[in-house]
């Protein structure tokens, strides 16, 4: 019996050591110091340790939609109560001990207390900890606070409605220990977005805390706390920089039909075609190489096709006029000016609005 328990203890500690090696990258001091202090208790407790997790994002250092990630400066707060960490305040001479998190982890491991080890699930870079501290109260109540900066993955980005899209951002904190040992509880009062995020391109709001159960690094069910918030773009920028120039180009193309000289029409339409190509490259440079068309892509591609069709149409009209059928050329020209061109563009824009923005 003793040999069986000793074997379980060695296997459990070895598994946790491997988890620490694979989930603590980067130079020493850059990551969560609590990740070095794993629990030595093997038996599943009667009740899991209740740990409150708060996530407060103070700054957004940048949103890279092409790489689909964002940088943040965040304050992570953890609270739990473990009687095994209690002490005599008269003996210590104080009610609260402010200690280094690593020393707390080492002490907890030495007495077999559970430490709520965590990892940030969508972390892409080293987590550079600016400050971290743990406060232990005499009754065993512990408060751990750290301020750090890191880059996080944003895999939920979907640019189908670009630039009218609303994107979802996540900050996911996962428990390394299974749910039988540690249970996370969101601290809503200590979570959310700061008042001055320093992000001008996006309007960030609708922040909320969610709790989930996932398959953790131990291969068993673990708790996850997720700070979710949404981002919308400043539409004034896109109206002025994108849609207003597009409207001017469409209007110029339509005004060409009022020229009697078909050769001049062809030359100006060719110049507009090059403008559309440059315009398309400028917009696509801000987005990843997507496997689908966005709202603005759909409109731009049709503008490109229509401009190309205008050049072909004017070439045909010139051939008809040169062949001595000037009346037929003017009749077709007049028909396109009044009906096909304006109604065609209205249909294109209307379909794009319905298919990309209104349809579920």
- Gap between N and C termini, in Å? 61 Å
Q: In this structure, how is the largest beta sheet organized? A: 7 strands, mixed
Name of the top-level CATH class of the largest domain? Mainly Beta
- The proportion of residues forming helix, as a percent range, comes to 25-40%
Number of helices: 7
Subcellular location: Membrane
InterPro entries: Neur_chan_lig-bd (IPR006202), Neur_chan_lig-bd_sf (IPR036734), Neur_channel (IPR006201), Neuro-gated_channel_TM_sf (IPR036719), Neuro_actylchol_rec (IPR038050)
Transmembrane segments: 238-259, 266-283, 295-317, 338-359
Organism: Ruegeria marisrubri
Describe this structure in words.
By secondary structure, the chain is of the alpha+beta class. It folds into 2 domains: 2-233, Neurotransmitter-gated ion-channel ligand-binding domain (Acetylcholine Binding Protein, Chain: A), CATH 2.70.170.10; 236-358, Methane Monooxygenase Hydroxylase, Chain G, domain 1, CATH 1.20.58. It is 39% helix and 29% strand. It has 7 helices and 11 strands. The strands form 2 sheets. Strands 1, 2, 3, 5, 6, 8 and 9 form a 7-stranded mixed beta sheet that branches. A 4-stranded antiparallel beta sheet has the order 4-7-11-10, with no helix packed on it. 28% of the residues are buried.
